[in-house]
From TrEMBL:
Signal peptide: none annotated. SUPFAM superfamilies: RmlC-like cupins. CDD domains: cupin_YjlB-like (cd02219). This is Cupin 2 conserved barrel domain-containing protein. InterPro entries: RmlC-like_jellyroll (IPR014710), RmlC_Cupin_sf (IPR011051), UCP019307_cupin (IPR014500), YjiB-like (IPR047121). It comes from the Bacteria.
């Protein structure tokens, strides 16, 4: 059985730099309902998928309830259980409902913050090879530094959901 539903195509959104959260010229991608999860071990299903597509450093948790971004690395968040309302793109971004089976791919600099989540909400986070994840809060100083680091972040070798020929490879050219 395939974990990824046939013809999974992500929603693509480009968030503007708001002066505090830099965001990215690359689109933020969301695969909605793209994954068929093993009900007994949904976390493992997502971890295996990400690792198969060369995204590692996986962790299991929620999403911080404060606005932050990562200026040195791209991040993927796969919802394994429950649901949450998450604001992406900073205070002037967009709130989306994320539920089990959804995957969000955040290009470096994309602001994100959990607004509310179900008790059982769990996401799997992962990163492309070679980069170190750092949590950055939106301040004028951090914004200025991020504008220098974000363009230097390498493109991932594969889409964490659909692999080397996936939508990310096409949309992040």
């Amino acid at each position: 059985m395939s974990v990824v539903r046939d013809h999974a195509e992500p929603l693509a959104i480009v968030f503007e730099d708001d002066g505090l959260v830099p965001n990215n010229i690359l689109p933020f991608l969301v695969y909605q309902g793209a994954l068929t999860l093993d009900p007994k071990q949904p976390e493992q299903t997502i971890e295996n998928l990400f690792e198969t597509n060369d995204w590692g450093g996986t962790w299991r948790n929620g999403i911080f309830d404060y606005l932050h971004y990562h200026a040195t690395v791209h991040e993927v968040l796969g919802a394994a259980r429950g649901h949450a309302r998450v604001r992406f793109g900073g205070d002037r971004g967009q709130e989306l409902e994320i539920k089990a089976g959804d995957v969000a791919i955040l290009p470096a600099g994309t602001g994100h913050q959990c607004i509310k989540a179900s008790e059982d909400f769990c996401v799997i986070g992962a990163y492309p090879p070679g980069a170190k994840m750092e949590i950055t809060r939106p301040t004028p100083e951090n914004h200025a530094e991020a504008l220098e680091t974000i363009p230097k972040v390498a493109r991932p070798p594969a889409d964490p959901v659909t692999g080397k020929h996936g939508a990310l490879m096409r949309l992040w050219r």
